[in-house]
Design a protein that fits this description.
This protein is an alpha/beta fold and about 300 residues long. The chain contains 11 helices and 11 strands.
């Protein structure tokens, strides 16, 4: 079970056989690939404009460790990268300098994409300064306004991935503004429904066990003392592994606040496809993108 990013990165040393396919590779993407290769990644395929990619690869000294597949434009790069992963070339697919819409169109193509029948969802992983464990959040980057049934799929996807990182039990908090169930606050109603589904055993067929509580405000997520002060009886307050957020806006603010104001380390991955998908932001630095590679390869290997 990984408790820090350093532990997670060291775990990549045993992934010598892992391979990443990157679509429309740009300089930051190639630099992230170099970091991954330096830490044990076995192979990488860079799909995009060969004339632009090759000088970067040679400058960084990794020409003997990567393969370049030429593509005319970002849209073609996305299609070729998805095809390579579908055919088994890569353990993870990475988004480079390509429009997210074009990238996901290739991923979700009914005939040539990476669909499995599962809903795709995003899992964020953060190492927050002062905490002694990794914090997971879903869905903070993919499904805009998930229904209750979609939240169940989001939870299942996340639990499978977290188990692949070595967790046998996961404490799950369903986030809302406070702990009272209120029909005027849909997030609180869904949170209570997720807890009831857990109690009825709807998540018992997953590879790890879990404890699900909610609705729960973020102060109780973070602090047992806050729960006690509010008179809330919780077995997971202050020990939450995974936070299920009500919608993408809440998840986006939650994660980016921790990253930009609390200086948390971050990695993200899209789950539910044939292989993990590293869906990075244009503002992510090479180290953050490297964290996404490490996370995705570990999840692919663990699954």
């Amino acid at each position: 079970m990984y408790k820090t990013f350093d532990e997670m990165i060291k775990g990549c040393g045993c992934l010598g056989g892992s391979s990443v396919v990157a679509a429309a590779a740009d300089r930051e993407t190639v630099m992230a690939i170099k970091l991954a290769l330096d830490h044990g990644l076995g192979h990488a395929v860079l799909v995009g404009d060969e004339k632009a990619i090759r000088p970067i690869v040679e400058e960084l000294g990794i020409s003997g460790k990567v393969e370049i597949v030429h593509a005319e434009g970002a849209e073609e790069a996305a299609k070729k990268a998805v095809a390579l992963v579908r055919e088994g070339t890569g353990d993870a697919l990475m988004k480079g300098l390509v429009n997210t819409v074009d990238f996901l169109r290739a991923v979700l193509d009914k005939e040539n994409g990476l669909r499995t029948g599962h809903i795709l969802s995003h899992l964020a992983v953060m190492e927050i300064p002062g905490e002694r464990h990794l914090s997971f959040c879903a869905d903070s980057g993919f499904i805009v306004a998930p229904t209750l049934e979609e939240k169940k799929h989001i939870l299942r996807n996340a639990l499978r991935a977290i188990h692949a990182l070595g967790y046998e039990h996961v404490n799950v908090a369903c986030l809302a503004a406070n702990e009272r169930v209120d029909s005027h606050v849909p997030a609180s109603v869904d949170a209570a429904a997720l807890v009831e589904a857990w109690r009825k055993g709807e998540f018992d067929n997953l590879p790890c066990t879990c404890t699900v509580e909610g609705p729960m405000a973020v102060d109780v997520v973070a602090s047992k003392e806050a729960a006690e002060h509010k008179g809330i009886r919780s077995v997971i307050a202050g020990k939450v592994d995974l936070t299920i957020v009500p919608d993408i806006e809440c998840g986006n603010v939650h994660c980016k606040t921790l990253v930009h104001y609390c200086k948390a380390k971050f990695a993200g991955v899209v789950l539910g496809a044939k292989r993990p998908i590293i869906l990075v932001s244009r503002t992510d630095d090479p180290e953050t993108k490297f964290h996404g590679i490490a996370l995705s390869c570990l999840i692919a290997g663990g699954m």
